[in-house]
Write a structure and sequence with these properties.
Elements: E1 4-12, E2 18-26, E3 29-33, E4 41-44, E5 48-51, E6 53-58, H1 60-68, E7 70-71, H2 78-86, E8 93-98, H3 111-117, E9 123-127, E10 132-135, H4 137-143, E11 153-154, E12 159-161, H5 163-173, H6 178-191, E13 194-202, H7 204-215, E14 222-227, H8 232-235, E15 239-240, E16 243-251, H9 281-293, E17 297-302, H10 305-318, E18 324-328, H11 334-343, E19 346-349, H12 353-356, H13 360-364, H14 374-379, E20 383-386, H15 397-405, H16 421-427, H17 430-436, E21 454-457, E22 471-473
Helix pairs in contact: 1-6, 2-3, 6-7, 9-10, 10-11
The structure holds zinc ion.
């Protein structure tokens, strides 16, 4: 590829600084600002050049599945969930995104209701958090999740939680073409100006699909894959162009929404319930040290403060440094923030949770002030990276940028702390790339020698009220 001079309203780098108005890219590598002798092509952009965004935590196949299936977000009743699900064509009625807190009457959908709307094929309605799902009778009978996860399945209501959800959904998705779902996820990321991502807790079929796409048509987005507890030993290190299985992802607890996040004290709205601890520090340290010794990374989901205690204890034992990650760290006491900073691990957070968890004070009472402490963490020296957790949240960078800076529109950022626009850009580009590792590590920057995988936006993402969109700067295509 010849050298290309891109002229624009401004070039914003990974520090969030305006560094010039034109950029020279040669052989898909950033050469520097301004003109150089011998450039061949000139492009004029009516907007700002940005480093491509990097999403440090999402689920590629999950994103594709939710784009394929029904969008259940903001459904106002269990009947509306079932109705939207029934509209999905094909051998599996799948949908995601319902939240009983948005229902007029906070009753959960159940098996019988889904049977009424989808009697003839398996149906599954996944809660917004991904930690709870409802199956109809056909789906339950096909998958028989109670055989492996008896304590995570209520056969009467058809409600599954935690490991049982992951298992049942992946089994049901075998009815669809998984490679097509993965492609759908990748293309939607690419067209939103995302150039790289960590795909978390990848199933076998997701890893196989990514690997095969990477080796045939090529990945439009670089992917660092984190395998799950069941399959990491057989996949760690697998690589293809722009793709690598770089580590393992574990779940130490569930979610606030499903009241399965592990808390030190009872839920404010469910006395006697402190959530579910899924792993102890011993389990985490054992798997973590295996991964680290082999040169890979470890990422652990921890939403509640008790889960975070276990992860911190494990990390104190195995000292992963920047190869260790905590996913979410949704509530953290001062002493936990200090520990995270001194461990030097990455904390990968999701600004949009501030909007989606608008009901969090009901669950946590006064402890809601411990939620989403982005600014505090950053100020105390925690390595922070931003992400969407798509399909849990919108994969498009502008909605996460706005939530990070506290500009959440009509639904408001009710909880959590704001970041400055400059910090948000840095954590959503270069820091997210570093937290991801593998082929993604080099992305998210604008400096000489950086990959020319860039994005642009008609508006300035550092301004409040910015409404995106972000587009890929496709120089090679
Ligand atoms: Zn996730």
């Amino acid at each position: 590829m010849p050298s290309i001079l891109i002229r624009s309203r401004g070039v914003i780098d990974h520090h969030g600084d305006l560094i010039g108005d034109s950029l020279l890219v040669e052989d898909e590598v950033v050469r520097g600002l301004g003109k150089a002798p011998g450039y061949v092509t000139e492009i004029r952009l009516d907007g700002y050049i940005l480093p491509g965004f990097v999403d440090a935590h999402l689920h590629v196949k999950g994103l594709g599945t939710s784009l394929y299936g029904a969008d259940l977000r903001w459904a106002r009743s269990p009947e509306e969930v079932a109705e939207r699900l029934a509209a999905v064509k094909g051998p599996l009625a799948v949908g995601r995104g319902w939240d009983q807190e948005a229902f007029e009457n906070p009753k959960l959908p159940d098996r019988r209701l889904l049977d009424k709307y989808v009697p003839d094929r398996p149906a599954v309605a996944i809660r917004v958090c991904g930690h709870l799902a409802v199956l109809n009778t056909r789906a339950l009978e096909e998958v028989e999740p109670w055989r492996l996860y008896p304590s995570h399945v209520d056969r009467e209501s058809g409600i599954l939680v935690e490991d049982a959800v992951y298992y049942a959904v992946n089994k049901l998705l075998d009815k669809l073409d998984n490679k097509e779902l993965v492609k759908l996820g990748l293309e939607s990321l690419h067209s939103a100006g995302v150039v790289g991502a960590s795909s978390m807790a990848c199933s076998d079929s997701e890893i196989k699909s990514l690997y095969s796409i990477a080796r045939s048509s090529g990945l439009p987005v670089r992917i660092a894959c984190y395998a799950n507890k069941e399959n990491y030993k057989s996949h760690l290190g697998l690589e293809a162009p722009r793709f690598k299985v770089v580590g393992v992802k574990l779940f130490s607890d569930g979610s606030f929404g499903a009241r399965t996040a592990a808390l030190r004290d009872d839920y404010e709205d469910d006395s006697g319930n402190r959530g579910r601890l899924l792993l102890t520090s011993r389990d985490i340290a054992e798997i973590g040290s295996y991964a680290l010794k082999a040169g890979y990374r470890i990422a652990v989901h921890a939403i509640g403060d008790r889960a975070l205690d276990e992860v911190i204890e494990a990390y104190n034992r195995i000292s992963p440094g920047a190869k260790g990650r905590v996913e979410h760290a949704s509530m953290a006491w001062d002493s936990q923030v200090e520990e995270l900073a001194s461990l030097g691990v990455y904390v990968v957070v999701q600004p949009r949770f501030r909007v989606s968890d608008w009901w969090l004070a009901q669950r946590l009472g006064g402890r809601v002030g411990l939620a989403y402490r982005f600014k505090t963490m950053l100020d105390r020296g925690v390595r922070l990276a931003l992400s969407t957790d798509a399909p849990v949240e919108d994969h498009r960078p502008w909605s996460t940028m706005l939530a990070a800076i506290g500009d959440c529109g009509a639904r408001r950022c009710g909880i959590g702390e704001d970041l400055s626009p400059r910090d948000a850009i840095r954590l959503y580009t270069i820091e997210a790339a570093r937290a991801s590792g593998g082929p993604v590590a080099a992305l998210g920057r604008i400096e000489p020698g950086a990959p020319g995988e860039l994005a642009w936006s008609p508006g300035d993402p550092r301004e409040r009220g910015w409404k995106g969109p972000v587009r890929p700067l496709d120089l090679a295509r």
